Amino acid sequence: MKKLISISLILSLVLLCFTACSPEIRITGERYTDYEGVYITVESTAVAENNSRLLNVTWHNETEDYVTFGLWYTVEYLDGDEWRNIQIVDYAIPEIACHLEANSTGEQKYTTKYFNMLREGTYRIRTEFYVPEKDVGTRSTYATFEVRYL
User: Fold this and answer.
1) Fewest CB atoms less than 10 Å from the CB: which of 3, 18, 59, 67?
2) How far apart are CA 117 and CA 44, in angstroms?
3) Full pLDDT tens readout for the chain, 150 residues
């Protein structure tokens, strides 16, 4: 009987740790782009493997030109006034070009499993895109979110 109670107690503590250490992600809505009319927004999140999160992102193209973007992205942490790269694992991203028509939106999912998101605070997902018809080079956009641990 004591053994059963001990096992029950240990299992309860393990379960409590996993649920108590689960991050809550709050979408702040702040966004940035260095090319007017093309930007991303984080629409929602979902729990993924290893308790990481999927960021459900919408790409917005409010211009008259088509835009291409790849699957590359990074997640950064706001440390005081400075954004810090928090990548913890090298990861390979296939070089696939996604095409976004003029005046349209597109959906993309990004995982947080390659990044150290153990601290509460402000984070951002940052990625790049191109406007081939304008030949303006690589452009950047990001959207922020908050992480809190329950």
Assistant:
1) 3
2) 17
3) 555 455 444 444 443 344 445 678 888 889 999 999 999 999 998 888 777 889 999 999 999 999 999 999 999 999 999 999 999 888 888 889 999 999 999 999 999 989 988 889 999 999 999 999 998 899 999 999 999 887
Domain 24-149 listed as CATH 3.40.30.10: no
- DSSP-derived 3-state class of residue 62: coil
Q: How far apart are CA 111 and CA 44, in angstroms?
A: 12
DSSP at 50: G
Which letter, b or e, does each residue of 90-101 get, where b requires 16 or more Cβ atoms within 10 Å of its Cβ?
Answer: eeeeeeeeeebe
Residues in the chain: 150
Q: What ranges do the domains of the chain cover?
A: 24-149
pTM for this predicted structure:
0.81
Q: First CA to last CA across the chain, in angstroms?
A: 33
Rounded CA separation 47/29 (Å):
20
